[in-house]
Amino acid sequence: MPQHHYEQTMARLLPAIESALTAATESCSGESTTGKLGPGCPQRLGDAIRYAVLAPGKRLRPALVLMAAEACGGTIQQALPGAVAVEMIHAYSLIHDDLPAMDDDDLRRGRPTVHIKFDQATAILAGDALQPLAFQQLAECGQSGNAGGNPQHLIQAIAALALAAGPENLAGGQADDLACESGHLPAAIAQAAKNIQQNQASQAERKQTQAFLESIHRRKTGALFSVSLRIGGLLAGADSSQLAALEAYAAEIGLAFQVVDDLLDHTAAEADLGKRVGKDIERGKLTYPGLLGLPGAREFAGQLVQRGKERLAPFGQSADALCGLADFVLSRTR
């Protein structure tokens, strides 16, 4: 799919996404009680929530929700609550990942991270608040009758988002990722990782380590990609075969995104990436370039993207936007 087609799709979707995110994070002011954050939300907390959610970003996950809905014959309006919900979960995860106790980052999307801009306590609370706000988006769209499909699909969407954000996926993947830095890896993986760093690992150790690394990122990064597509399909009333195709595509593209992320940490300029680079190497983290080398990691990312695009064959031209997004994931520089 030509790059300009993908850019045209994003130019069409982004205004709706940004408008919905702004509306979903409005606070009450004066005598108004219409703000989504409610009259009891402290101003500083509301400011931190907006700072995180409205920060300049690629909006890949909410765009995936809308693209999936359209591929399944639905509309942007049907899927917007799901797009907002997914981006809120993503924003919460970034706030918490950046904290000193986690990845300890001071730069995100070219701006100070939330705990630097405000303070650690406010950042934690903003992340805490964004989780229930995400589910509120989905629940309220069902109450208003704006969601597509049937009520059972909406319940499935809520359950899918909870599973993706929970201990088996997003939170669990982050826990294992942190274990790579803190010396809490399984003994066999720890020894294999050490041997890889010393260029003494066997082929079996490399395969074992790669499988462990994939298990982390299919949960930490891939789960939100997968649920974005699933929610978009569910809100559009997708059938089981459509949902299966979307999830197969997501499994490949979500992992490709993380492989490229690892590559950018090795090769990108900080000004282009909008966050500190080289920190994975400094911390001795398990990464795909460290495991496969830069050429091997690039080749692996390309294979994942190609397989992802093949998974979309049942949709025909209605999945052109999703194919274009896959190409963007491979070619992105930030």
UniProtKB/TrEMBL annotation:
Cofactor(s) the record lists: Mg(2+)
Pfam families documented for this protein: polyprenyl_synt
Keyword Magnesium: yes
Keywords from the named record: Isoprene biosynthesis, Magnesium, Metal-binding, Transferase
InterPro entries to which the protein is assigned, alphabetical: Isoprenoid_synthase_dom_sf, Polyprenyl_synt, Polyprenyl_synt_CS
EC class name: transferase
EC number: 2.5.1.10
One Gene Ontology MF term: (2E,6E)-farnesyl diphosphate synthase activity
Gene Ontology biological process terms in this record: terpenoid biosynthetic process
Record-stated family: Belongs to the FPP/GGPP synthase family.
Name this protein carries in UniProt: Farnesyl diphosphate synthase
